[in-house]
Amino acid sequence: MAFFLRRPRRATLWTALLALGAIAFTLVQGLTRAPSSEASAAAAGPIVASAAVRIIDGDTFDLSGERIRLWGVDAPERRQRCQTGEPGPEATAALTRLIGDRAVSCSVRDTDRYGRTVAVCRAGGRDLGAEMVSEGWAWDYTHYSGGRYSAEEQGARAAQRGVWAMGCEPAWDWRHSGG
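Now predict its structure.
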């Protein structure tokens, strides 16, 4: 029992303190490093801009020089053809109208394989992805959203709005078939 009562040797104490310091440093670095996955990316700071929004298509825009892809939705491609027309330009116009001259704020979720920031974005307090799906100009991209916009999609489908009225296949299927 006597060995439990001995004072720790200085070298052992310093080694333990240095090890704890290294562990703490590693943890702090991990918490402050830019997120690289969708789960940790949700903690990233918001991107906010009141001007300099340039719409690219129905789910992508430039915000103060940064390319943003709306998280969880997929809008028709620019040249996508459906049974009764081409919805791409209409989807682009819908996103343009939803943003208007409102300030846009985005919560970063991820970076896609094209280097675009993937984010949940709001304009005028409204989730742009939810609005695009609700109006029928985008699909709930369940592969990424986990069904976050399924209620909006069901409403658009039932009311035959946007892509549902035009007889479109989802953009991901259209791209996969060679578009």
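Strands lie at 46-49, 53-57, 60-63, 66-70, 73-74, 104-111, 117-123, 126-127, 139-140.
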